[in-house]
Recover the amino acids of this structure.
């Protein structure tokens, strides 16, 4: 459970959601196909992300279920990508109906500049990215995450790796998590590479 909290496996996911569906099926014999399918994808994503973090071979872990796990992950990624595409389309429509609809390019640029100046990623380090909803250049906060715990010998800090804050566009209202940014086609690996090089 503690490891699951450190994983970025997708938007709107929680271990509790997946476990609730699992428990309903196991203990009450209730399995709504749509909920069950989503829960299997979520649980598979958590296990898969854990394997990556623990440096364990997927084939070795899944063995005969490797193909089924791959299919569950593929279906989940497809659902996530379609949902992110809808978020980007909605943000683009908001932009076009509002700021993008201003008749004067100079006025539009001035409004965008004022909105972006008023926003800050909230961290010391950030990287620039183009908003997929409106094309505005934004700063996304980056930081190096640590897992701090206590054992018999005292306190210990384990590096978990770099992480991006949410993209939060003040111009079109688009908000994307790190995994959603990947689904939107943003260069997340390059952005995280900056953190690796500078920490």
């Amino acid at each position: 459970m503690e490891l699951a909290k450190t994983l970025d496996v997708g938007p709107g996911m929680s271990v509790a959601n997946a476990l609730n569906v699992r428990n309903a099926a196991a203990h009450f014999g209730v399995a709504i196909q749509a909920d069950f399918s989503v829960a299997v994808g979520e649980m598979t994503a958590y296990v898969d992300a854990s394997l990556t973090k623990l440096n364990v071979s997927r084939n070795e872990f899944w063995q005969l279920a490797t193909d089924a796990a791959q299919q569950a992950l593929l279906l989940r990624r497809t659902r996530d990508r379609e949902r992110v595409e809808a978020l980007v389309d909605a943000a683009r429509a908001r932009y076009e109906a509002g700021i993008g609809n201003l008749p004067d390019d100079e006025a539009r640029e001035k409004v965008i500049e004022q909105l972006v100046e008023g926003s800050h990623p909230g961290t010391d380090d950030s990287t620039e990215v183009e908003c997929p909803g409106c094309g505005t250049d934004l700063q996304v906060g980056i930081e190096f995450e640590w897992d701090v715990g206590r054992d018999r010998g005292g306190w210990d800090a384990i590096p978990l790796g770099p992480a991006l804050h949410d993209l939060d566009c003040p111009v079109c209202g688009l908000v994307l998590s790190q995994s959603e940014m990947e689904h939107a086609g943003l260069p997340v690996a390059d952005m995280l590479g900056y953190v690796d090089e500078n920490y």
Notes: The longest helix spans residues 66-97.
